[in-house]
Amino acid sequence: MDNDNRNREQNKGRDDDFNIGEMLIRILVTAIVVAIAAYFTPGFTIDGIWSLLLASVVIGVLDHLVQRFTGINASPFGRGITGFLVAAIILYVTKFIVPGFNISIWGAIIGALIIGIVDAIIPGRAM
Fold first, then answer.
1. Which residues contact 100 (CB under 8 A, 6 or more apart)?
2. Can you give the pTM of this predicted structure?
3. Is residue 45 within 8 Å of 20, Cβ to Cβ?
């Protein structure tokens, strides 16, 4: 019993730590998913690979901050309508931070829906 409690405490501490490897994988998966969503979504364009990579970093950081401070998982289907709305807001806010990342309000809503669908298909966590 004592070892089980110690293992739980160690794993609990790992969940709270920032892991750069996980963040890099999340950024790569986010870049792929956002590129797919931009291709299929009207009102959602990305001007180049550098804009896509920078947008992936910004989306990853915003998702991490939202999850850290509010506890809300920003996956479009991870937390129902709340996660869907948070994902759409993160996409729309990224427009103001990243040059070459253009998205309308409807594009953000449709993009969050497509990201949720692709996120369910591709293993890993995009948002």
1. 46, 47, 48, 50, 51
2. 0.73
3. no
Query: What does the mean pLDDT of the chain come to?
Result: 78
**Residue 12: alpha-carbon gap to chain centroid:** 22
Residue whose token pair is 């931070």: 97
Nearest-angstrom CA–CA distance, 3 and 124: 30
What is the C-alpha to C-alpha distance for residues 103 and 9, in angstroms, rounded to an integer? 43
Give 52: exposed, middle or buried? Use CB within 10 Å, 0-12, 13-18, 19+: buried
Report how far residue 90's alpha carbon sits from residue 112's, in angstroms, rounded to the nearest whole number. Answer: 9
The span from the CA of 65 to the CA of 113, in Å, is 21
Q: Region 17-29: what's the mean pLDDT? A: 76
Confidence of residue 7 (pLDDT cuts 50, 70, 90): very low
Length of the chain: 127
pLDDT at residue number 37: 86
Cα separation, 61 vs 39, in Å, equals 23
